[in-house]
Amino acid sequence: MRITTLAEYGVICALHLARRATEGPITGRELAEAEQLPVDYVEQILGRMRRAGLVRSTRGARGGYELARPASAVSIRAVIEASESTTFDLHCVTKPVGEERCSSAHTCSIRPVWMLLQQRIDDVLDGVCLADLLDDESVVRTRVGLTGAPLAIGVTNDRTLPVLQS
Questions:
Q1: Which of 11, 49, 125, 148 has the fewest CB atoms below 10 angstroms from its CB?
Q2: Do 68 and 56 form a contact (C-beta atoms < 8 A)?
Q3: How far apart are CA 154 and CA 88, in angstroms?
Q4: Is there a contact between 24 and 62 (Cβ–Cβ < 8 Å)?
Q5: What torsion, rounded to 10 degrees, do the Cα atoms 64, 36, 8, 60 define?
Q6: pLDDT at 50 (0 to 100)
Q7: What domains does the chain contain, in order, with CATH numbers?
Q8: Is the pLDDT of residue 100 over 90?
Q9: What is the CA radius of gyration of the chain?
């Protein structure tokens, strides 16, 4: 699996909006500048997220984009699907090698593995919300079950993500 530019930029944009939730709307241009991303990509992604109901836009001099829901209610899967329409491209469905070989009528021993992988990826991305990513990397690493990066002094791990602990 490869994370595309649209997916990565979508998460960056959504996380930026989550970090500034109490500051009001921000224009696409301002967000692109702050995150050093191409303005065209950011505007396209914000439009997609608006259509998906993840962000709302306000017109006018103080207009711009902001999250439509609390960061704790926006999963990374939702952000990626809004930015790009899918989290995992199952080629036997979207780009079959051969009509006969990849049809659902044909038995394929590989397809179940890809389907399981897609399900696991979606489960992990569903289990992580924007609010989970608002901490420093060391805290997030511990939260998601990665070892080797201890928590900062005085920080406790009071929130673990069960889907990532199995």
A1: 148
A2: yes
A3: 38
A4: yes
A5: 10
A6: 96
A7: 5-156 (1.10.10.10)
A8: no
A9: 18
Q: What is the pTM of this model?
A: 0.78
Give me the pLDDT at residue 16, please: 97
Strands 64-67 and 55-58: antiparallel
- Annotate the chain with three-state secondary structure: CCCCHHHHHHHHHHHHHHHCCCCCCECHHHHHHHHCCCHHHHHHHHHHHHHCCCEEEECCCCCEEEECCCHHHCEHHHHHHHHHCCCCCCHHHHCCCCHHHHCCCCCCCCHHHHHHHHHHHHHHHHCCEHHHHCCCHHHHHHHCCCCCCCCCCCCCCCCCCHHHHC
Q: Are 20 and 26 in contact (CB under 8 A)?
A: yes
Copy the structure tokens of residue 88. Answer: 């995992």
By CB atoms closer than 10 A (0-12, 13-18, 19+), residue 130 is buried
The tokens of 142 are what? 């511990």
Q: 45: which 2 tokens?
A: 């992604």
Write out pLDDT tens, residues 102-115. Answer: 666 667 777 788 88
